[in-house]
Amino acid sequence: MGTPCHFALFDLQPGFRLDLDLLATRYRELARSVHPDRFADAPEREQRVALERSASLNDAYQTLKSAPKRARYLLALKGEVPLEVTVQDPEFLMQQMQWREELEDLQDEADLDGVATFKRRLKVAQEELNESFAACWDDAAQREQAERLMRRMQFLDKLSYEVRQLEERLDD
User: Fold this and answer.
1) CATH assignment at residue 19
2) Could you list the residue range(s) of the whole structural domain that residue 61 is in?
3) Is residue 48 one of the residues assigned to a domain?
4) Is-contact 10 60, C-beta < 8 A?
């Protein structure tokens, strides 16, 4: 049978739009029930099973709470997701270069206010991508578009991580 679907683990329907608070609540409840400490006096096999369940629960939670990872997972449930970016996306490549240059300028100028503004714009772009993905991931005819959006989401996720790093460096 293999491992249960990440969504089933949390008793949720597979979908991109998720109630993240509900996900977190269910994660905490389940995490308590499989916490290795609860099996400290149990036989070794039970301890091992608890540890495996705890690890897979954590993996499922990390996947579902992140929009790009959740997107990739949903696409993977419906078939192979090519690792290589075979989808040409010149429009977005230009956008990426602009964002990168802008971020470098903000770093050179040590412009904390500029970084905050950049971060807000990035968040809006992420929300728009999430909406676009939510609207098309389940439609086989729009598979290529969904994969393209998922890759854009991955890029923005990485970029917002870099923005947070820059913010911390400038804040010190």
Assistant:
1) 1.10.287.110
2) 6-65
3) yes
4) yes
CB 93 within 8 A of CB 63: no
Q: What is the dihedral of CA 160, 155, 20, 27, to 10 degrees?
A: -100
Distance CA 149, CA 167 (A): 26
Task: Specify the pLDDT at position 1.
Answer: 40
Low-confidence ranges of the chain (pLDDT < 50): 1
The model carries a pTM of 0.88
Q: In residues, how long is the chain?
A: 172
As for how many domains the chain has, the answer is: 2
The closest alpha carbon to 151, from 65, 93, 80, belongs to 93
- Among residues 48, 65, 82, which one ends one of the domains? 65
Sign of the CA dihedral with 27 first, then 33, 34, and 37 last: positive
What is the gyration radius of the CA atoms in the chain, in angstroms?
A: 20
